[in-house]
Design goal:
It comes from Archangium gephyra. Keywords: DNA-binding, Transcription, Transcription regulation. There is one protein chain. The chain has helices spanning 9-21, 26-29, 37-41, 49-63, 65-72, 80-89, 92-107, 136-148, 181-189, 194-234, 238-248, 253-260, 264-278, 283-293, and strands at 6-7, 47-48, 111-118, 121-128, 160-165, 168-174. Helix content is 61%, strand content 11%. The protein folds into 2 domains: 6-191, H-NOX domain (Alpha-Beta Complex); 209-293, Winged helix-like DNA-binding domain superfamily/Winged helix DNA-binding domain (Arc Repressor Mutant, subunit A, Orthogonal Bundle). The strands form 2 sheets. It has a 4-stranded antiparallel β-sheet, with helices on one face. Strands 1-2 form a two-stranded antiparallel sheet. By secondary structure, the chain is of the alpha+beta class. β3 and β4 form a beta hairpin. The protein has 14 helices and 6 strands.
Length: 294
């Protein structure tokens, strides 16, 4: 059985944002690849592992290894006061366990991930599954991300050592002594600017909701525009448009069946008709045509 081949939108977004911060035009990185820049920025679909490797290695070629590490280590964060408050309730150990044990396997399923702790040292072991191209560059950016992770909760960067190959990496993170929940709660009651922290969090929440609403409006506008173009060009029925919308967003036949309330056979029939009307040889080419040519 072939290994899963797609990297999650969140991991791809980290590299895209690193390119933006480094002043590297996205179109230069995806040249010759079957990737639509609009869909990539709007996080419309997961990215094939082979294309992801090319994307990261091209970015390294433009900015150099050291700067690539620094750019990928700049994780999204809250306001300083919000980070301090979050750090009261979330320990570094809990943060690392959550990211490496829960998020990792779903974000990059083609990499076998294990996280273990011994004393004050956490050990992340990554191994690329067989059948996929290796890349030392891809595995090196994990080191910067691990070091920057505690910044999200207002904690200092830890020491991170690594040993890398083209097909994996071992990372050792120096973890601080866990204070325990009681100690963190006691520290929370000693914060002199508690009211300010709560007020700041409320402001952060409002800004997040506004930004999220604007992002979804933008996504829906782009998708609706392309669906209208597809209907005009291929003379699609309303149900075929619903199936095409799901395909464009990366849904499987099973997910489409649950979303539209019909059988898998019905979905397969609609997909076959979409391929015929669009002149596409596969679902992949259909989605590529949808995002790039309509």
């Amino acid at each position: 059985m072939l290994p899963p081949r797609t990297v999650s939108n969140q991991v791809v977004e980290m590299v895209v944002e690193a390119a933006d911060r480094g002043g590297v035009p996205l179109h230069e990185l995806i040249d010759t690849l079957s990737i639509d820049p609009t869909a990539l920025r709007l996080r419309k679909h997961r990215l094939d592992w082979e294309d992801f490797v090319v994307l990261v290695e091209r970015l390294e070629g433009r900015v150099g290894p050291a700067r690539l590490d620094a750019l990928c280590a700049q994780l999204p964060s809250l306001a300083p006061s919000g980070r301090r408050l979050l750090g009261v309730f979330v320990s570094e150990r809990l943060l690392y366990r959550f990211v490496n044990q829960l998020l990792g396997p779903t974000s990059y399923p083609m990499i076998h991930t294990t996280w273990t702790e011994e004393g004050n040292v956490g050990h992340l072991r990554l191994r690329l599954r067989d059948g996929l191209s290796g890349s030392r560059t891809v595995f090196r950016i994990f080191s910067g991300a691990l070091a920057a992770m505690p910044l999200f909760i207002g904690h200092p960067q830890p020491s991170v050592r690594h040993q890398l190959t083209a097909r994996g990496g071992d990372y050792w993170v120096q973890l601080p002594k866990d204070e325990g929940l009681r100690a963190r709660l006691q520290r929370a009651t000693q914060l002199a600017d508690w009211d300010v922290l709560l007020e700041t969090l409320e402001e952060d929440k409002s800004r997040f909701l506004e930004a999220n609403e604007a992002m979804w409006r933008s996504r829906e506008h782009v998708l609706d525009t392309k669906l209208n173009a597809a209907q005009a060009r291929w003379s699609l029925t309303p149900r075929q448009l619903e199936v095409l919308s799901g395909l464009a967003l990366g849904l499987s036949n099973k997910a489409l069946m649950e979303e539209l309330g019909c059988s898998v056979k019905t979905i397969e029939t609609h997909v076959t008709e979409l391929l015929r009307r669009s002149g596409s040889e596969s679902r992949l080419s259909l989605v590529a045509t949808f995002w790039r040519e309509l």
